[in-house]
Amino acid sequence: MMAVLAGEAIWPPPIWMMRQAGRYLPEYRAVRAEAGSFLDLCYSPRLATEVTLQPIRRFGFDAAILFSDILVVPDALGQKVWFVEGEGPRLAETSLDALADLDPGTVLERLQPVLETVGSIRAALPSETTLLGFCGAPWTLATYMIAGRGTPDQMPARRALFEHRQAVERLIDVLVEASVVYLTAQLEAGADAVQVFDTWAGSLDDEGFEAFAIEPMRRIVEGVRARRPDARIIGFPKGAGGHLASYARRTGVDAVGVDWQASLDHVRDQVQPIVPVQGNLDPLHMVTGGEGLDRAVDRVLDHLGAGPLIFNLGHGITPDGKAENVERMIARVRKAEPRSA
Ligand code: CP3
């Protein structure tokens, strides 16, 4: 995985899966029940380490991802976060001006348990397994902070952007600064690389994508590299479509995560020549399996296997995903014939 992040094409490609620790695994559900609330699980170094390791033991993925959530950052900034069973996240209703006035300086102190988890995972993980840290991208975090919950179309944040652009810009500045210190601290605590999840990048218009997806990410990459010049950073701008190549070029990330809607011809011809790519199997194949899964795996390898590739899904596995389909995907990738350019 680290060789691919350095730009090498490796066969078979390294493989991990977004949300690889989660509710589709019975052993996760058992620990989750023991922890109480979801955030209690995120803030327990012992239990968060355990659930991070579960998919590594079961499937032998090439990378582990820190078990936490992107919303621990707003929580640490002082906007209270909780999760409603069966519904999703809630954040305390807070005015846009108050959000823009939050102090990024407090974030590390409150995220100490997560940083402790990073160290404890690294100590328990086989040395050949890459440990990924992560955070949410500023725009995606802002959508939850402004709406106070998940929404289908991010209308509250998009509206705030059009009506109160300067306040949204100040909130983005807070989140850029918090992300730089948090990612740097994860790398110092033992993460080998980090991924920044911009789940809602695709809700921005063309101008907005440049100003609120590309530019904050460019500043995060620059800020982390100023502190750790060797930092390896993956950007995942979900829904970026035709923006993928300019995102890759202008943010300076080491690799770009690609969702399952992206055109593989476009990714091979326009993105992979700039940076290694990660993705992009439709997570629904983890539910449906069978020969449809095999064909979809082959299609990713046929398009992207000749260049630097990290095999992954195009978004997280859902709670109805099946472990047997995960095994089938991994076996198919690892047994595949090398592709050549
Ligand atoms: O990938 C991993 O295995 C690492 C852990 C991880 C979680 N969330 C665990 C989680 C990561 C990297 C995230 C990122 C995250 N969290 C994102 C960005 C990536 C993405 O999936 O789009 C976002 C938008 C969130 C916010 C969030 N967290 C939502 C909207 C929800 C509720 C939706 C749901 O699936 O229930 C969560 C909860 C959450 N985060 C769960 C897990 C395993 C399920 C909660 C539970 O176990 O009860």
Cα end-to-end separation: 20 Å
CATH topology: TIM Barrel
Q: Which sequence of strands runs across the widest sheet?
A: 1-4-5-6-7-8-9
Structural class assignment: alpha/beta
User: Quick one: CATH class?
Assistant: Alpha Beta
List SSEs in N-to-C order: HHHHEHEEHHHEHHHEHEHEHEHHEH
Query: What ligands does this structure carry?
Result: coproporphyrinogen III
The mean pLDDT is 97
Total number of domains = 1
Which descriptor suits the 3D outline? globular
Helicity level: 40-55%
Q: DSSP helix count? A: 17
Provide the gyration radius in Å: 19 Å
Topology at a glance:
Blueprint: H1 2-5, H2 26-35, H3 38-42, H4 45-59, E1 63-65, H5 72-77, E2 81-84, E3 88-91, H6 96-100, H7 107-110, H8 112-124, E4 130-136, H9 138-147, H10 155-163, H11 165-189, E5 193-198, H12 206-227, E6 233-237, H13 244-251, E7 255-258, H14 264-271, E8 277-281, H15 285-288, H16 290-304, E9 309-313, H17 323-335
Parallel strand pairs: 1-4, 4-5, 5-6, 6-7, 7-8, 8-9
Antiparallel strand pairs: 2-3
Helix pairs in contact: 2-4, 4-8, 9-10, 9-11, 10-11, 11-12, 12-13, 16-17
The structure holds coproporphyrinogen III (CP3).
Coproporphyrinogen III binds next to strand 3 and strand 4.
Can you walk me through this structure?
The chain has helices at 2-5, 26-35, 38-42, 45-59, 72-77, 96-100, 107-110, 112-124, 138-147, 155-163, 165-189, 206-227, 244-251, 264-271, 285-288, 290-304, 323-335, and strands spanning 63-65, 81-84, 88-91, 130-136, 193-198, 233-237, 255-258, 277-281, 309-313. It is globular, with a radius of gyration of 19 Å. β2 and β3 form a beta hairpin. α2 (26-35) packs antiparallel against α4, α9 crosses α11 (165-189) and α10 packs across α11. It has one domain (2-335): Alpha-Beta Barrel (TIM Barrel). The strands form two sheets. Strands 1-4-5-6-7-8-9 form a seven-stranded parallel sheet. A two-stranded antiparallel ribbon has the order 2-3. By secondary structure, the protein is of the alpha/beta class. The relative contact order is 0.14. The structure holds coproporphyrinogen III (CP3).
